[in-house]
Amino acid sequence: MFWNPWLISSVSFMIFLVMACSPETHKESEHRDLAKTENLNQPVTSPILNDTSSPVLSFIETPPLDGSNIISFGFRSSEPGKIRYSGSCIGSTTNALKGDHHIKFVAMVEGTYDDCVLQVTDASGNTSEPLQVPAFTVDFTAPELTAGMGAPPRVVGRTAAMSLHASEPGTLAHDGNCSGPPQQITEGQNKVLIRFPGDGQFSDCELTLRDASGNTSEPLALGTIRIDATPPVLAEIKPVPEKISTDRPSYSFKTSKSGTLNFSGKCKGNVNRAVAGVNHIALLTNEPGAYDDCSLTLTDSSNNRSLPLKISSFVVASSS
Same CATH fold, 234-316 and 145-227? Predict the structure, then answer.
């Protein structure tokens, strides 16, 4: 038989094309079957379990009430979530993070709030136990502070004592050229002490009262307060001669201030007041003898008392 070379080449090329275009070879099929077997032997992963734990809320330290009556409340949440408020309070945020929070209650009116509760719901829908907010009071009314009825301030040294009337409790504050410790004032009548820095007249001292909600009263002006805490100073000008025969010897002294005289010892004076400057008085002696224990003091109008002035010793001779 005679084979045509061209025919043999064509048939060989067609066989090659069929094998090349086949979807997979026998070897590839074996690899695919092996992979399927290995996948069947892999462990099956369990689906993720749902979160069933509720957030846990607790109190933390809360900042004090500020001067704007803004109520701040501190709490801690074990999970993030949404905050739900109930009762009479509305919070400034509805988002809770894991950890500490300080939220502010808004749109408050005057009154006492004792029904405020909040809860946190996490992303899985679990809701915390209710957290009760401690009762608090919102107060926008400023206190009133007035001078008490009766006597004007009583000044002793550099301190003035006076009576005040307050419409509610609070802390007393000083402004101007006066001072004093922060003093707690009760509702009604109160006795207070106000200090001044020195002698003179002071007319710029004002008092204010701040209540527990941060409201401050109108300033109470005290008017003019005269302070005199300096005691008089006495000096002997003309002593009694050492030996005399009269029972009314003359005596001269000087004082820096006017006031009331007080004698001690065996001597008495013929007057009980002295004026600032030089004074000439008579000493009254009851009997002859030595007078060596006599002294005098002067008390001014502010109740300042001088140091004792020792009257120089003298002897009253017997008239016989």
Answer: yes
